[in-house]
Amino acid sequence: MAAHLGASVTVVDRDGLGGAAVLTDCVPSKTLISVGDFMQRFEAATELGVGFEAAHAGEEATADASRVNARILALAAAQSHDIEQRLLSEGVRVCRGVGRVLAPGRVRIEAESGGAEDVDAEVVLVATGATPRVMDTARPDGERILTWQQIYALKELPERLVVVGSGVTGAELAHAYLGLGSDVTLVSSRDRVLPGEDAEAAEVLEGVFTRRGMTVLSKSRMQSVTRSGDSVTVTLTDGRTVEGSHCLLALGSVPNTTDLGLEEAGVTLKDGGFVGVDRVSRTTARGVYAAGDCTGVLMLASVAAMQGRIAMWHFLGDAVAPLDLKTVSSNVFTAPEIATVGWSQKAVDAGEIDAECVMLPLSGNPRAKMQGVRDGFVKLFARPGTGIVVGGVVVGPRASELIHPVAIAVAENLTADQLAHAFTVYPSMSGSVAEAARRLHVFRT
Ligand SMILES: Cc1cc2nc3c(=O)[nH]c(=O)nc-3n(C[C@H](O)[C@H](O)[C@H](O)COP(=O)(O)OP(=O)(O)OC[C@H]3O[C@@H](n4cnc5c(N)ncnc54)[C@H](O)[C@@H]3O)c2cc1C
Asked: What spacing in Å lies between the alpha carbon of 435 and ligand 1's midpoint?
């Protein structure tokens, strides 16, 4: 964006363009999930009247972990290469190495190829991301005890996988490996999975997980993980133990903000080491902006990218609107998917906003019936009186796509009536979004 606006830009990067989002986190995990989802379709086929017995008697669909992971890594590397080519074609200078802020306006680059160079700049954008959190009592070894960044080196599918942590990353990867054929146990310290998401959506997902054979251990806090040969033991704080062939740790992330010279340059770090920023991505040091996971504002690739754009628009004097988290849509890539935007049920229940709510199960949707979809719902929140849509939740197949009309309504302050009046295709899942909006209509005489 900065180059597009005419700035001369240098990017310092130590791993590869696209960062963890492309190389180890977002892109690889979604690719793995797509393979698990594909495998799961075989299970659903029987209900639709499709059988494989005659064509492949005695055969079962199996995933070849080596090939699956090789494809994932190749895809991530290709995407990183594409981004690099795009930057180079825009005239951006790309330096492979580690950056450190010496002062506002001055960055030292320790080049991967050796040597150091100091670069002067009118503006510095810190976008160093975050790293998986690890504990001393559960040290990853890259073979059996793994962070989410290490799973793509596996040559075999984990036979019995214990996933520790039931936030978005833990739930998504537990779902992926269940679909791929692993025996999965999900260890959750809270009383349900996805504690940060809509409670009814999380309940639907936990029900599906259990029905499909996953063991979900709620109110179970991990104390330690140890390995003995080919097996791992997860010990819980209440003394129970869970055995597996592999353990995947999904304990959250810590920001990459140490040894960057930030505090010396006048940048204030908040609790947990996150860079403090305002809504146009300014830090406390003049000319130093920050974006993405290192700020902890909302750990999503889409938000990171928007914070970065906002920073450049702001510094370079283009028109800019401050970041508005109430318009961010996000998705949990499980089956069903859980997509949300705007105000949440929790905020409505806590009285933070006055909103009316309609919840419509997908089981009544004709397209869902045709496709054998039973789990899921559409939920909309609208302001009483004006009927302006302020939030929504979609739980269902491809909820990540279905949330878009709701996101437009929230971003543009549309009313439920306006959302309802747009035609939807019959039959379609989006028909349920329009129907939920219709049910929010208030009859006025
Ligand atoms: C498993 C998983 C799945 C996810 N899936 C999604 C998803 O589906 N959708 C979504 O929106 N978000 C998703 N996220 C979140 C998303 O990956 C992050 O929000 C996003 O990566 C943040 O981007 P960033 O640019 O801040 O940091 P990163 O993508 O982490 O990039 C920062 C880069 O800077 C490098 N770096 C650090 N320090 C230095 C230094 N001193 N010098 C040079 N380079 C340095 C790092 O090595 C890294 O390559 C997922 C996260 C995880 C863990």
From this structure: 37
